[in-house]
Amino acid sequence: MYRIEISVHRFMETRSDFLVMGSGIAGLSFALKACKYGSVVIVTKRSCEESSTKYAQGGIASVMAEDDSYDLHIKDTIEAGAGLCHEDAVRLVVENGPDRIRELIELGAKFTLRDEDVLDLGREGGHSKRRIVHATDFTGEEIEGALIKAVKKNNNIRIYENHIAIDLITKSRLESDIKSGGKDDMVLGAYVLDKNKGEVKSFLSKITLLATGGAGKVYLYTSNPDIATGDGVAMAYRAGAKIANMEFIQFHPTCIYHPQAKSFLISEAVRGEGGILRLKDGNTFMEKYHPMGCLAPRDIVARAIDFEMKKSGDDHIYLDVTHMEGYRIRERFPNIYKKCLSLGIDITKMPIPVVPATHYICGGIVTDLYGKTNIRRLYASGEVSFTGVHGANRLASNSLLEALVFSNRAANVAAKELREIPSEEITIPPWDIGNAVDSDESVVVSNNWDEIRRIMWNYVGIVRSNKRLKRAKRRLDILLEEIKEYYWNFIITSDLIELRNIATVADIIIQCAMMRKESRGLHYNIDYPQRDDINWRKDTIL
Ligand code: FAD
Ligand code: SIN
């Protein structure tokens, strides 16, 4: 059942061939391709540029150097993925990478050059070669800027900022004899709250793309911006889409530890260029954990830091670049240098205090190799999706690449599907608001939000146990009940929409983590400390 505030607000309707939810790299690059075949509407919950994409630092991994090869990039990706990468998806992403990067350059993205016309390729953890295309450490801003500029020039694309999608409109929800997520079900668009006007509108479309990004805000400490509340996964799950591998939450090893920094990321490229991880006493430790030392895959580095911090009781470790030349640091990492300096840390002279924080969600909405979900007319791309590329641990800088490649493939196939969809007048029946009233208790929303994020950080974090997972589940079940009640009784706000979604995603993460009875990649359970390839070399599908 949906609820729409028909009696409170005027009911508005918008129609398009393609509805894109999200304006990060996945949504914008899809829109730019799809607009050649039909009208495109983008809804995005804040300003157009606000996305994880905008904050990406390191860059995009791709085979661009003479001494590199597709096979090496595939091997590195699969090794980081700890036995769960789908090789066909990895091959596709790696082999399509160079073309997608050339397209970004043609759109106007300016990446850092080593010599005239030769890209400066960076190095990051788990990569055996230099293959990270970057724009110093402002890579995301450069890409997002180029994409937005192109989208805004296009008359076939309309953008609705400050519009937050609430739920997908599916046939099964309108017709009771159709099974949710079954073969006759299909997505017809979405209900969306216009945050400025407080109106709920229906956006009807022939093809819908979820490109709503990640869910870092489910955890207390995260590198992610505030938009990352897992809305797409939650909406798709409620609509009956398959969701997979949500236990694989990636913790980035190095976010700055500072009360005013809100988990600002210190890019892995800093270690790629020679940054050294040290304990508070100055000693190094990564050589004990992996032959690649500080450049080991992220799951190993984050767990090693967590272990060392718990052993010593320290609240952070250090990332040290003081041995590197000052001008080189300022030139290669101007964003990080400036941010740290604003916090009183001159990184050319002092080590940077860092801790791990939630960074990326390897699981998501299951798609095929064209971004199609199990529900007709619904596609997903970017961090919200599960394509099989990342396995149990994503290799650094493979996320932007995956989004570009899959959005391109999805747009091509969706254009073909569009041609086969008959023009039909869909009517959405008005819904009953029930007895919903304006909430006078927003403190409930903020308290529940805070509690969920603490539960997830404390019990479903880098190191898990059966007892911690059960405790998290018990507490979350109570909160889910409370939020459900609140959702139905009060007029919808964007805070309430996000709270409901982080609770749903937290529940999905716990369910997946409880199912997997082994330790692998980013999922580490002290009650099953070994990897079990006989029983668990498979995805966790809900
Ligand atoms: P996003 O870029 O997050 O965009 C999601 C969009 O959906 C936003 O516009 C958001 O407002 C909108 N949205 C969300 N919910 C709703 C809703 N309910 N209704 C309407 N709109 C909604 N990856 C790399 O490969 N290389 C890197 O160097 C790198 N660095 C990173 C640094 C940081 C600090 C972070 C946080 C991530 C980094 N990542 C990096 C990961 C990568 O940036 C993201 O995985 C990627 O940008 C996701 O792109 P996306 O388009 O899927 O989602
Ligand atoms: C970083 O710059 O360390 C982030 C890279 C990534 O998340 O892929």
Q: What does this protein look like?
A:
The structure is a single chain. With 542 residues, this protein is of the alpha/beta class. The protein has 3 domains: 12-247 and 362-420, FAD/NAD(P)-binding domain (3-Layer(bba) Sandwich); 251-359, Succinate dehydrogenase/fumarate reductase flavoprotein, catalytic domain (Flavocytochrome C3, Chain A, domain 1); 443-526, Up-down Bundle (Methane Monooxygenase Hydroxylase, Chain G, domain 1), CATH 1.20.58. It has helices at 25-34, 52-55, 70-80, 87-107, 139-152, 171-174, 231-238, 268-272, 298-312, 326-332, 334-342, 399-420, 442-459, 466-489, 494-515, 533-536; strands spanning 12-21, 40-43, 60-61, 113-115, 118-119, 121-122, 132-133, 157-160, 163-170, 187-194, 199-210, 243-244, 249-256, 276-278, 317-320, 352-361, 364-366, 378-380, 385-386. Strands 1, 2, 8, 9, 10, 11 and 18 form a 7-stranded mixed sheet that branches. The protein has a 4-stranded antiparallel sheet with strand order 13-16-15-14, covered by helices on one side. A 3-stranded antiparallel sheet has the order 3-7-6. α1 (25-34) runs parallel beside α12 (399-420) and α13 runs parallel beside α15. Residues 4-10 have low confidence and may be disordered.
Would you spell out the secondary-structure blueprint of this structure?
Layout: E1 12-21, H1 25-34, E2 40-43, H2 52-55, E3 60-61, H3 70-80, H4 87-107, E4 113-115, E5 118-119, E6 121-122, E7 132-133, H5 139-152, E8 157-160, E9 163-170, H6 171-174, E10 187-194, E11 199-210, H7 231-238, E12 243-244, E13 249-256, H8 268-272, E14 276-278, H9 298-312, E15 317-320, H10 326-332, H11 334-342, E16 352-361, E17 364-366, E18 378-380, E19 385-386, H12 399-420, H13 442-459, H14 466-489, H15 494-515, H16 533-536
Parallel strand pairs: 1-2, 1-11, 2-8, 11-18, 17-19
Antiparallel strand pairs: 3-7, 4-5, 6-7, 9-10, 10-11, 12-17, 13-16, 14-15, 15-16
Helix pairs in contact: 1-5, 1-12, 3-4, 4-12, 7-15, 13-14, 13-15, 14-15
This protein binds flavin-adenine dinucleotide (FAD) and succinic acid.
